[in-house]
Each structure stands twice: as structure tokens, then as C-alpha cells.
Amino acid sequence: VAYDMEDYYHSIAWLEEAVTLFRQSHGNWFTEDQGSLEDSLDYLAFSYFKMGNISYALTLSREFLHHDPSNKRIARNVHKYEKLLATMPPSRGPEVEVQRPNVTHLLTREVYESLCQSLGSQPRHYQDPKLHCSYVTSKSPLLILQPMRREIISLQPYVVLYHNFINDLEAEAIKRTAAPGLQRSVVASGENQSAVEYRISKSAWLKDTANPVVSKLDQRIAALTGLNVQPPYAEYLQVVNYGIGGHYEPHFDHATSSKSPLYRLNSGNRVATFMIYLSSVDAGGSTAFIYANFSVPVVKNAALFWWNLHKNGQGNGETLHAGCPVLIGDKWVANKWIREYGQEFHRPCSANPDD
């Protein structure tokens, strides 16, 4: 995908790994492995050529010819690279370091990738007594009978994790109900919605009548948040499936433009997000908050909650977040987006932008 998108910076990383693995397994190849190695060498050589490293592109092309001396196209490439190197000014030198393109939208990518690879700068509970774990009880009979374990992950933005929000049987029921309706996920683009490369997943929407479990989850979410989660004051439950490589690059859940399709429901912006982890993931899949510089690993059956808007109605820029790529496993989540309207007596407005 990176190669086809001419993102040679990332195609080089993948292809280098593939070529290295083929070299290490030489002598134990299956019949089709030599062709796969040649394809990898071919694409890798051209990627380096496009990034300006002609010398290494030549080396890789010669390695290709070692395995397939009769390939005329690669032989022509070797001749072309040799000719280019012969005319290259001595001051430049043949080697060019592969560097990330200097593009504005990549400014957050450095943090995004760092958080996804290392879980970033996680909040330290012992450093801030306000970050703690506790049982949530309220006047709701639901929570009196069954208190919920809450872990405060961050104060700015306010992000909490509710452990054991859902049980295994409920999670499987949601996944099973949503599976027949899964389609490629889309994002709001101007006044329309479309599939994009920076969101790779499948999703389906479930009404509370789709399965009794959905209605139970709505009741539980309302008890925990104190918010009105009935339509049109909240959206239907969105179930999302991320396979291997599935991800959602940095984005906001709330609309940042008055022309967003989110306003078609006439129920305001998305004031809060309630995201339920329906499965575990062997590797990857964390939820990374870019500007706040922390990420939350997938915790099966837990639910993550945060406010997208300040109490004055303005979007909270600290909620820029991403779904990290799934490396091993199958990630399922269910999103409940709660709208502004209908919350007037549940979350009063404030003129203070810091609220």
C-alpha cells in the first residue's frame, strides 16, 4: 500500500524487513519464495531510487540479477543506475540518507508512531494523587448493586477507564449482531462521508432494538456518565472491527467544521465519547492521545470515556487521538457518541473555556 501511494519512506521499511527475512532463510525456500524475493528486491530498489539513493538501488538490482540473470528490465535498470552514478557530482556522493518527507501533516505522526510503538509517556499515578482508581457508586440502583471500577487515566483531557464494563457473553453478542452489517468505515469529508486510507476498518451501526444487550449497555452508560443517551441525543452504537494493520490515524471525534455531516441530526456536536473494548489484542491497537502524550492499551471488556467538548461548547484540542495499528490479533470496539443537545441539565454549560 505504501509503495502504491508513493510513500517510499514507509515502503522501504517494510521491504527491507521482507528482504532480510528472505536472505536469512536462504536454503529453506519454497518454490515460490525466490519469486517473492525478486519482487521485494525490485520494489525496494525502485523505492531507494525514488528517495535518491541510487547507489543502493544499483546494489539491490544487481542482487536481483544474481537470482534471475535473464531479466532484461532489471538489466536496463542496472545500466541506467550506473549511468546516473557516473554523471553524479563528486561533492554529492552516491549515498543519500532516507529521511521522512517534510510534510506538515506529518508533524503529529512522529508522536503518533512513538506512542503506538512504546505506549509513550504514560501517566504516573504515584506522581499525581488525582489520578487514582476507585469504585463508582451513585443514586442509580444499577451502580449501587454493581459498583463500577474506574481508573482515571488523565485529567487534561479528562479520560477514564471503566474496568469490566461488559462481560464476555455481552461482548460476543454485540460482535455477533454487528458482523452481518459490517462495511468499510468512512469519515466525514466536507459535507460528505467517504472511505479513506487513514482509517482502515469495518463498522456497523446497531439500534437498541437490534439486541437486548445494546439496550442494557445504554442503561449502563447513562448511569456512569449521567448523560442522556437516548436518540437523538446520542448516536446508535457503532461497532468497529480492525484486522491486522487496521488503524485510524490522529483525528477528533467531534466536528471541527460547521459544514460537517455530524450536524445533520440537529442535535449538536459530539460532547463525549464512550468506547468499549469488545476483544483483546495480542499486539498493537492502543488508543493514543497525541497532544496529551499518552496511550491506553486495549483492555478487554473495559470502556474508555472522555469529553470532546469544553463546557463552553468549544472543541477540546487535547482529545486528538488515534487507533494504533493492530499488529497481531483482531480488535473489536463499540463506540457510543453522545451529543450536546439533551444534556443541558446533565452537564451544565460554562463560559469558562478551561471547564
UniProtKB/TrEMBL annotation:
<protein>
    <submittedName>
        <fullName>Prolyl 4-hydroxylase subunit alpha 3</fullName>
    </submittedName>
</protein>
<keyword id="KW-0479">Metal-binding</keyword>
<keyword id="KW-0325">Glycoprotein</keyword>
<keyword id="KW-0847">Vitamin C</keyword>
<dbReference type="InterPro" id="IPR006620">
    <property type="entry name" value="Pro_4_hyd_alph"/>
</dbReference>
<dbReference type="InterPro" id="IPR011990">
    <property type="entry name" value="TPR-like_helical_dom_sf"/>
</dbReference>
<dbReference type="GO" id="GO:0031418">
    <property type="term" value="F:L-ascorbic acid binding"/>
</dbReference>
<keyword id="KW-0408">Iron</keyword>
<dbReference type="InterPro" id="IPR059068">
    <property type="entry name" value="TPR_P4H"/>
</dbReference>
<feature type="domain" description="Fe2OG dioxygenase">
    <location>
        <begin position="233"/>
        <end position="340"/>
    </location>
</feature>
<dbReference type="GO" id="GO:0004656">
    <property type="term" value="F:procollagen-proline 4-dioxygenase activity"/>
</dbReference>
<keyword id="KW-0560">Oxidoreductase</keyword>
<dbReference type="InterPro" id="IPR045054">
    <property type="entry name" value="P4HA-like"/>
</dbReference>
<keyword id="KW-0223">Dioxygenase</keyword>
<dbReference type="Pfam" id="PF13640">
    <property type="entry name" value="2OG-FeII_Oxy_3"/>
</dbReference>
<dbReference type="InterPro" id="IPR005123">
    <property type="entry name" value="Oxoglu/Fe-dep_dioxygenase_dom"/>
</dbReference>
<dbReference type="GO" id="GO:0005506">
    <property type="term" value="F:iron ion binding"/>
</dbReference>
<dbReference type="InterPro" id="IPR044862">
    <property type="entry name" value="Pro_4_hyd_alph_FE2OG_OXY"/>
</dbReference>
<keyword id="KW-0256">Endoplasmic reticulum</keyword>
<dbReference type="Pfam" id="PF23558">
    <property type="entry name" value="TPR_P4H"/>
</dbReference>
<dbReference type="GO" id="GO:0005783">
    <property type="term" value="C:endoplasmic reticulum"/>
</dbReference>
